[in-house]
Amino acid sequence: MFKKVLIAEDHDTENVAVQITLRDLGVNHPKYVYYCDHALTWIKNAIRDGEPYDLLITDIEFEDDGNFQEIKDGLALIKAVKEIQPDIKTIIFTGKDRSVAINEMFKAGQIDGHVIKARRGGQHLREAIQAVYQNRIYQSPDTKKIIQEQNSHEFTQLDLHIIKLLYEGIAQKDMPQYLQQRDIKPSSLSSIEKRLNLMKDILGFTKNEQLVAYCKEMELI
Questions:
Q1: Which whole-number Å values give the CA distances from 174 to 90, 167, 178, 212, in the listed order?
Q2: Residue 100 above 70 pLDDT?
Q3: Taking the CB of residue 203, how many other CB atoms lie within 10 A of it?
Q4: Fewest CB atoms less than 10 Å from the CB: which of 11, 12, 69, 72?
Q5: Residues near 127 by Cβ (< 8 Å), separated by ≥ 6?
Q6: How confident is the model at residue 218 (pLDDT cuts 50, 70, 90)?
Q7: Per-residue confidence at 203, pLDDT binned at 50, 70, 90?
Q8: Residue 131, CA atoms < 13 Å, CB-side half-sphere
Q9: pLDDT tens, residue by residue, 177-194
Q10: For the stretch 131-148, what's the b/e string if a residue is b when 16 or more beta carbons lie within 10 angstroms of its beta carbon?
C-alpha cells in the first residue's frame, strides 16, 4: 500500500473522512493541506528531501477565504504537480462536476482515479485507492452515471475556440478571420456552422446562447 500520501482538501469533515479511509487501508500518517499552493510546496520539498509522495488526493474546488493562491483548483494543482513529479498517482475526490476536463486529463495520463463525494463516497474512495495502487484506472459508479446521463460531446480545440468567440460577442460571419489569425484550421464559415450545429444537436440545444451557457457552467470557457 502507499506509504506517503498528501491530501489537499479545505473542508475538515471531508479531510477527516479521507484520513479514516487511508488509515483503514494501512496508511497511518497521511499529510494534509488546505491550499493548493501549499500542496505543491510540500511535494517539492518531499522531492528535494529524497522522500517523494506516492499519492495525491485532492478536491477540485477550494473556497476563496481571502488568502491569495496562485493555484486556484485541484485540476490545476495536478497539472503543476505532474510537471515536477510525473510518476505520482493522483485521485480526484470531489462533489464538483467537471467531467469534460477530468476526462481530458485521464486521457493525458494526469489522473488515475475519480470519485464523487456521494452517499457511498467513502467506499468508492477505498476502491479507488486500492485500484490505483495496483496501477489501474478507477472511476466510481457515480462518475460513470453522470457521464452516461449527460449527452456528452468530445469538444475539439476548434469547438472551444468557436464557443469562446461566441462568448466574446464575435459574430459568426466574422469568426473565420479570427481563426485564421490564430492559425486554427479549418476556419471557413461552413466549417464553423457545421461544428456549431453538431454541438447543439448532440447536446440538445437550439440556440448558440444555450451552448455558451452550458460551456460556461462546465467551466470550459
A1: 42, 14, 7, 17
A2: no
A3: 15
A4: 12
A5: 138, 140
A6: confident
A7: confident
A8: 18
A9: 999 988 888 889 998 998
A10: bbbeeeebbbebbeeeee
Q: Quote the DSSP letter at residue 6.
A: E
Neighbours of 160 (CB within 10 A): 13
- Cell matching residue 209: 446562447
What is d(CA 25, CA 143) in angstroms, rounded to the nearest whole number? Answer: 23
The residue among 82 and 72 whose pLDDT is bigger is 82
Grade residue 50 by pLDDT with cuts at 50, 70 and 90: very high
Interval 101-114: pLDDT, tens: 777 788 788 999 99
Place of cell 461566441: 166
Question: Is residue 56 classed as helix, strand or coil in its secondary structure?
Answer: strand
Cα gap 139→38, rounded to integer Å: 27
Task: Identify each DSSP E strand in the chain by its residue range.
Answer: 5-8, 31-33, 55-58, 89-94, 113-116, 138-139
CA distance linking residue 148 with residue 155, whole number of Å: 16
What's the CA gap between 220 and 128, in Å, rounded? 26
